[in-house]
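Translate sequence into structure tokens.
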Amino acid sequence: MDTKVFSTDGKELRTITLSDEVFGREVSDQTVYFAVRNELANLRVGTACTKTRSEVIGSGKKPWRQKGTGRARAGTKQSPVWVGGGIAFGPRPRDYSYTIPRKQKRAAIMSLLSMKAQGDALKVVEDFGVDTGKTRDFVSIMRNVSGGDRVVLILKDDDPMVKRAAANVPWLKFLSYNRLRAHDLLYCKELVLMESAALSLNDFYASKREKTA
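Result follows.
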């Protein structure tokens, strides 16, 4: 598929070809769901913890005698039925992370790229840098090429000055072309690719069969 390349002023410069396998494939909702669910699970800290009856501090003395009081039998103040007692079946520290097949993750990323391309939410912009590293200069560029609402910018290289300038922009997230996150791609309203990053995505995600064709 052919797409236009825009300048940092928002003007059309030229046309480049994007891989149909990466940007023009059929979207798999199920694959996208599995990838997003995996990323969210891997972000969970899993440190929630409650004390059981054996961990609650308290006396081991029997509160009252077994018979003759008219009250229910009680053997310890740490019982879960008592206020201040232990918690039965409460959360314990655990690891929520798991892995999914690499092919499934790659298919999800390509489905999301295709979804944005088919929904006219993808735009390619010429490579640019922010020599000053100032947020103001970076935002002025992004306002020319995007609407400024939940934007994801895909970079070719880890440009420290661009990342420094973009770190404080609340409506933007930046990703490297080889470390994309399905959650960010799914929920962004606009996907902006630097030209070199768009071409690198062609080579990084396209199959060998298409490359040799």
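Note: Confidence is low (pLDDT under 50) at residues 208-213.
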